Prior knowledge:
This protein is α/β, with parallel strands linked by helices. The protein has helices at residues 23-37, 52-65, 78-88, 119-132, 150-160, 180-188, 220-229, 256-270, 285-292, 304-314, 337-349, 355-360, 378-389, 433-447; strands at residues 13-16, 41-46, 69-75, 92-95, 104-111, 115-116, 144-146, 169-174, 193-198, 233-237, 244-247, 253-254, 275-279, 296-300, 318-320, 326-328, 334-335, 366-367, 371-374, 396-398, 403-406, 412-417, 423-430. Strands 1, 2, 3, 4, 5, 6 and 7 form a 7-stranded mixed β-sheet that branches. Strands 18, 19, 20, 21, 22 and 23 form a 6-stranded antiparallel β-sheet that branches. Strands 9-8-10-11-12 form a 5-stranded mixed β-sheet, with helices on both faces.
Amino acid sequence: MHDLSGIVKAYDIRGVVDEQLDAAVVREIGAAFARLVSAPEIAIGHDMRDSSPGLAAAFAEGVTDQGVDVVEIGLASTDMLYFASGHLDIPGAMFTASHNPARYNGIKLCRAGAAPVGQDSGLAEIREMVENGVPGFVGRRGTVSSRDLLAEYSAYLHELVDLSNSRPLTIVVDAGNGMGGHTVPEVFKNLPLTVVPLYFELDGSFPNHEANPLDPANIVDLQAKVREIGADAGLAFDGDADRCFVVDENGDPVSPSAVTALVAVRELAKDPGGTIIHNLITSKAVPEIVTEHGGKPVRTRVGHSFIKQSMAETGAIFGGEHSAHYYFRDFWRADTGMLAAMHVLAALGEQASPLSELTSEYSRYVASGEVNSTVAEPTQRLAQVRAAFIDRAGATVDELDGLTVQLTDGSWFNVRPSNTEPLLRLNVEGPGETEMVRLRDEVLSIVRG
């Protein structure tokens, strides 16, 4: 029997290879997944980590042991696996630990049509099955076939965003030795783009920097190269290339909220009056801009399961998060940083202004970024923050996810506890730097005592 308590997370399975995650465990997880989804075949993809091909093969053994066929798509970004699941209408499994260090690996699972499998939608059942012993199967063993979907994935993205009429652009792309080095050359070829590559060599040891573009330290090389060559823009992908971070021609980061607003406007132009999902710590510019362009903004909790659930319930055409995850109805409601990047490049290439000028239209306020504080009693500190603001004149308070307070000067903040650590996460936004800093420091003084 296996103990999966340390590796089954809210949205995926993740752990240290050989210590928590080995071929034997993964084989059983594959068998359990096959029983969960009751499908005739399952797609399996993997990233460039040294452990990924072997773990993917063990998972395939577990699947075929249950009489289910496997379609191996080989090296893939996570959104390529979602494409396989949607395009072929079969469940899928992606072997990746995203931006985690090399010693980690993991599995992202989805049902047919890229429908997510999380703690409340299948992961708990898989854990229970594996820990109690997956029942055996008597009958025909499943088969394994291979299919290269990279060209079809690229062609589908080009159907959704047409870059062929863009003015010529020079862009720097930092793949962080992750799967962007596999997908970008195919997706961006034969377009009016000059791509200057950084760290396209697939290397799961991440020799140059962590493949996590939300950490400012990991986009320094990208920023420097953009400035050095006078590029029009820079793109940074995370390890499994489902998230994309953008910098402008000055090397300055473009906030994911501004990208969300920009893409929302473009999607609304195709589908007037559509619903756009945003989580509660994106800039308040996002719902303002969506409303101004005739769309219907819907606010959700933080976390991709909430975004996807809300998209399904509302029929939303697009959703964006502060973490640079972007979700598209036309991509089976799954997240794809590549498609968001293509929207940004298309918007840039359709007009003459530089990216900084283009995105300034979508950047109306000053944000703190996420400020984390380690505290012994998160619930108690959260209550103290609430008490300090609940009776403030004109303040509005809601508790959809942690505590969100909006003040009369246009400033707002959200403070919420981490699901896994004794942390409080604070996000603050104000009409200007002065208001934002004042509010941030006031809340932090309560949080940190």
